[in-house]
Write a structure and sequence with these properties.
Blueprint (H helix, E strand, L loop, with lengths): L1 H20 L5 H21 L4 H28 L2 H9 L1 E2 L4 E2 L8 H33 L1
Length: 141
């Protein structure tokens, strides 16, 4: 239960940070905070569980918490208008380069991508941890 309490605090802090500072964050920092930090956090929390059961619960529960964080962020930033301002600030069109940001974080492809990324990374971490626990069990037998 401690893992989910810590995770909830982590995601609340990340949520408030992103919603408060969205318009001043450079694009690479935003991408890091929205995509890579949750993946790394979930992987770390899942990997460092003591029992197989807690590892499994972390691998299943943390992607749901990550997705809830993403949906809450998408909803609030859309409702208060900061997402459209962010899109305007960071969309770039040059001669050979165009960077477009989706105006709606609730697009089906975006949601599918987020579910896939959060779930796949947790599943991969779970199977890596499980195989290491099995090897450790074989060595001690």
């Amino acid at each position: 239960m401690l893992i989910f309490s810590l995770s909830l605090v982590f995601y609340l802090l990340l949520f408030f940070f992103l919603t408060q500072f969205l318009l001043v964050l450079p694009m690479p920092v935003f991408l890091l905070l929205l995509y890579f930090v949750p993946i790394g956090f979930n992987a770390w929390m899942t990997y460092h569980q003591k029992t197989s059961r807690s590892t499994l619960l972390s691998a299943i529960g943390l992607p749901f918490l990550s997705m809830f964080f993403f949906l809450a962020f998408a909803y609030l930033s859309r409702e208060n208008g900061t997402w459209l301002q962010f899109v305007e600030l960071h969309s770039v069109t040059e001669e050979d380069l165009t960077v477009e940001i989706a105006e709606n974080l609730f697009e089906q492809t975006q949601l599918f991508f987020m579910v896939f990324v959060y779930s796949a990374s947790s599943a991969l971490t779970y199977f890596i941890r499980k195989s290491q626990q099995m090897k450790k069990g074989v060595q001690h037998a």
